[in-house]
Amino acid sequence: MADLALDVPPPPPFASHAAKGGTGQVISIGSMSKTHWGGLRIGWLRAPARLVTELAGQRVATDMGGSVVDQLLALALLDRGDGLLAPRLEQLRLQRAALVSALTEHMPHWTWQLPPGGLSLWVDLGEPVATALSERALDNGVRIESGACFATDPGIFEQRMRIPYTTPADTLREAVHRMATALASGLPSASTARRPHWVA
Q1: Residues β-bridged to residue 28
Q2: Which secondary-structure segment (H or E) carries 153?
Q3: Are 87 and 96 in contact (CB under 8 A)?
Q4: For residue 145, is it left (φ>0), alpha (ψ between -120 and 50) or beta?
Q5: Which of 73, 79, 174, 196 has its CA 20 to 30 A from that of 189?
Q6: Does 15 score more than 50 pLDDT?
Q7: Could you tell me the pTM of the whole model?
Q8: Cα separations (Å) of 129 from 40, 99, 103, 123, 196?
Q9: What's the farthest any 2 CA atoms get from each other in the chain?
Q10: Positive/negative CA dihedral, 190, 140, 200, 97
Q11: Cβ contacts of 183 within 8 Å, gap of 6 or more
């Protein structure tokens, strides 16, 4: 997520914090699924050559291999450098603004802090109804996971919802409208709502 800085400069690369001459002792990893496209499950590793060789050997022993098409696409995208990132950041800013506007209109009692980067808002619903609301929202055609799905223990973050702003602005506005309709129609009691589960 470090490259998805929307309102602040992106942080310097992690390896830049190494002691002088110590970058060979730093391992950096990243993923193209956040900066380019969620379906592009290609990551990268920057490490000393000996370690990269060892890790590549371990992968061969435990993995049948990743998609060659995805790897070729990733290579082409990397060759285009930052030329793709700037438009993506602007798109995320517009979508974030649309989500905030829709939430302000339809759910004025919910609160959140505007994130200076990333892909989602963490919204405080004011009461522990996130799981029940996500169940009812699904009945209204909106798939959204409660904050409890991202917690270390059941019940934590039950009054929070993680709402991504990765879809077009019109879709976000419609989703919030449907969530407001679901909330207004009443929620099932905690005993009938589905139990929290975790998303890896």
Answers
A1: 46
A2: none
A3: no
A4: beta
A5: 174
A6: yes
A7: 0.80
A8: 33, 20, 17, 12, 12
A9: 62
A10: negative
A11: 107, 129, 133, 136
What is d(CA 191, CA 157) in angstroms, rounded to the nearest whole number? 17
Please state the length of the chain.
Answer: 200
Write out the two tokens for 74. Answer: 């990733």
Burial 119-142 (b: 16+ CB within 10 A, else e): bbbebbbeebbbbbbbbbbeeeeb
- E strands present in 68-159: 120-124
DSSP string, 19-31: PTT-GGG--EEEE
Supply the pLDDT for residue 193.
45
| CA-wise closest residue to 128 among 153, 163, 150, 160 | 160
Which residue type sits at 139? D
Q: For residue range 42-57, what is the model confidence (pLDDT) as tens digits?
A: 888 888 888 889 888 8
Query: Under a CB-based contact definition with an 8 Å cutoff, are residues 111 and 79 in contact?
Result: no
User: What percent of the chain lies above the pLDDT cut of 90?
Assistant: 44
pLDDT one-digit tens code per residue, 123-154: 999 999 999 999 999 999 999 989 988 888 87
- Whether 65 and 37 have beta carbons less than 8 Å apart is answered as no
pLDDT given for residue 199 in this prediction: 44
Residue with tokens 């438009």: 87
Name the helix (H) or strand (E) containing 161. Answer: strand 160-164
Which residue's structure tokens are 């890790």? 55
